[in-house]
Amino acid sequence: MSKDTFKVKILDFKTVKEDFNEYELEDGSRVKVKVVLADVKMAVDEEGKPKLNPDGNPIYHFNFETKVRILPKNRVVTMSKPSKPPEGIYG
Fold first, then answer.
1. Tens-digit pLDDT profile for residues 7-64
2. Which residues make Cβ contacts (< 8 Å) with residue 66, sequence separation at least 6?
3. Residue 1 has what pLDDT?
4. Per residue in 22-35, is it b (16+ CB within 10 Å) or e — as a string?
């Protein structure tokens, strides 16, 4: 393995709680933002044992997704009709 690569173990996780942060804009609209854990990996050595940082804790690598909802003051949005699927695909 090269100096620039390392092994990781992909860890499963369960969501315990997710909340939106909510902000009110000067026009009365609200913006809701939530950061969601997408995946987490733990660095491991050649034997699969966790690699530790200088404090003695495992080294984790996190990936997050950001969810954003905008709620206009009048709570009205314009949506396009879904396009018709190509014929023959659904039945």
1. 999 999 999 999 999 999 999 999 999 999 999 999 999 899 999 999 999 999 999 9
2. 33, 34, 35, 36
3. 59
4. eeeeeeeeeeeeee
Place of tokens 């044992």: 49
Please tell me the distance from the alpha carbon of residue 23 to that of residue 30, in angstroms, as a whole number: 6
Q: Where are the domains of the chain?
A: 7-71
- pTM greater than 0.70 (yes/no): no
Number of H helices, E strands in the chain: 0, 4
CA atoms of 69 and 33, how far apart (whole Å): 7
Q: How far, in Å, CA of 28 to CA of 40, rounded?
A: 37
Task: Return all residues near 29 (Cβ < 8 A) that are at least 6 apart.
Answer: 70, 71, 72, 73
Cα–Cα dist 83/86, whole Å: 9
